[in-house]
Write a structure and sequence with these properties.
The structure is a homodimer of 115-residue chains. Chain A has a single domain, classed as Arc Repressor Mutant, subunit A, CATH 1.10.10.10. Helices cover 54% and strands 10% of the residues of chain A. At the A-B interface, helix 1, helix 2 and helix 6 of A face helix 1, helix 2 and helix 6 of B. The structure holds a DNA duplex (30 and 30 nucleotides).
Chain lengths: 115, 115
Amino acid sequence: MYKRKIPVDLSCPLRLTMSLVNSKWKSCLLDELRGAPMRPSELHKALPEATPRVLDLQLKELVDDGLVEKTIYPELPPRSEYSITDLGRSLLPILDAMIVWGETNRALFERKYGE
Amino acid sequence: MYKRKIPVDLSCPLRLTMSLVNSKWKSCLLDELRGAPMRPSELHKALPEATPRVLDLQLKELVDDGLVEKTIYPELPPRSEYSITDLGRSLLPILDAMIVWGETNRALFERKYGE
DNA sequence: AGGTATGACGACAAATTTTTCGGTATATGA
DNA sequence: TCATATACCGAAAAATTTGTCGTCATACCT
């Protein structure tokens, strides 16, 4: 079983939750998986800015943390699927709140930093 | 005015929100400031695991992003205070949800990773 | 046989974050 | 005078995250 290099932060509830999600792609991956299971190549198509390698690494940590599940089908050519677990799904309301916040305040930050 | 090295991520609402908060201490700083304005030394006492230098750097970005405000009192010895803005305060419900999630699931992760 | 696609992963490089160390400056108290 | 405290900041090291590149294996299609 894959082991995190840096363990989850148990020192306080906020840091615990943050440490599961604060990376460039983990929150996006959870968001993508909210609907149906997805294959690695599909996730890469959905998040083309991320390389398959990075998605692979971050999915491993999500699996290790119990937020995502991986199923390998012993077929050829190989096929595997990632799906969100109940634990991961329980984070979605938080991600939803972040999405709403981002939509609400996007214009502000576009004015400040934008193109 | 201080400028972020890495700009806020405008590519999607979720990434925008995440990019404001995804660092080791920013969410904690916002959480600490929810009550009253605090001085740098107080913030360091509240978050002793973080060095004053890091708090300083991350507070600068929070100020630059408009989530926190800084007041400098022209006294000697020098005094300054950080306070949360309305924009920053609008993120607190999300942090609250993370705190609740962390409390709910702490035992799970202590079993998995903890001492 | 050669090209394509799948998924996994090692080795390494680049980028970014976080930390450490030292220094500036001023006032107070021992 | 010396130590302490306050706040700030630069340089550089260390740690961590993210990205690039090449490889393996297998089956399909041309």
